[in-house]
Amino acid sequence: MDIILLGPPGAGKGTQAQRLEQRHGMQQLSTGDMLRGAVKAGTPIGLKAKAVMDRGELVSDEIVSELIDAELTAMGADTGAIFDGYPRTAAQARSLDEILARHGRSLDHVIELVVDEDALVERITGRFTCANCGAGYHDTFKQPAQSGVCDECGATEFKRRPDDNEETVRTRMVEYRAKTAPILPIYEERGIVNRVDGMASIDEVTEAIDAVLG
Ligand code: AMP
């Protein structure tokens, strides 16, 4: 089963994708994670993408579609894909159709996480992750049980994304509204869009997504 998680930055796509991986043996394909990996590794793509990402704008369609194509090639045909943060433009949506067809795959569901945009800035600017295992935390909503120590692995180093500051978040929201939200009708026409309340608790959102996947 291949699905898209769609929603503005901070809607919870990454959190839910990680849970789907654990519960259903699917694989998260996050273009944001791939690009951050490229930036960290200093690859040509990373060098090109860094400034664009720091501004909260969108990296070129060609780059992200190539990244997705390569990941699908590396992935087993039997493993379901969770597209997280891709597609983000109409051109990417068209590319995804072509790429999936080439890999003999097709989309089963598009899950739109519906959220109150005013809450997103607080959600995003407060988030941080364990530098060792990637477990997610939040200044207000989810501090580690013991301050400064990761609940999952005991590490004491944490990190924040450089683009999780208020100014960049506002640009990312504008990009979402202008370029990503308009791709929903493409999937609505196919009858594969399901709306889930992204303001519910993390567990409730997971349950609602599980109900869609059946
Ligand atoms: P994300 O982790 O999904 O919030 O993505 C972080 C940043 O990476 C975005 O603000 C964009 O600059 C870039 N990015 C991630 N995915 C895409 C995509 N599908 N198309 C264009 N840019 C992307």
TrEMBL record:
Signal peptide: none annotated. Residues 127-163 form the Adenylate kinase active site lid domain. It is found in: Cytoplasm. Residues 30-59 are annotated as: NMP. ATP binds at G10, A11, G12, K13, G14, T15, R127, A200. Its main location: cytoplasm. InterPro entries: Adenyl_kin_sub, Adenylat/UMP-CMP_kin, Adenylat_kinase_CS, Adenylate_kinase_lid-dom, P-loop_NTPase. It catalyses: AMP + ATP = 2 ADP. The keyword Nucleotidyltransferase does not apply. Keywords: ATP-binding, Cytoplasm, Kinase, Metal-binding, Nucleotide biosynthesis, Nucleotide-binding, Transferase, Zinc. It is an enzyme of class 2 (transferase). The keyword Cell division does not apply. Zn(2+) binds at C130, C133, C150, C153. Consists of three domains, a large central CORE domain and two small peripheral domains, NMPbind and LID, which undergo movements during catalysis. The LID domain closes over the site of phosphoryl transfer upon ATP binding. Assembling and dissambling the active center during each catalytic cycle provides an effective means to prevent ATP hydrolysis. Some bacteria have evolved a zinc-coordinating structure that stabilizes the LID domain. HAMAP family: Adenylate_kinase_Adk (MF_00235). Monomer. Belongs to the adenylate kinase family. Catalyzes the reversible transfer of the terminal phosphate group between ATP and AMP. Plays an important role in cellular energy homeostasis and in adenine nucleotide metabolism. This is Adenylate kinase. It comes from Pelagerythrobacter marensis. The gene is adk.
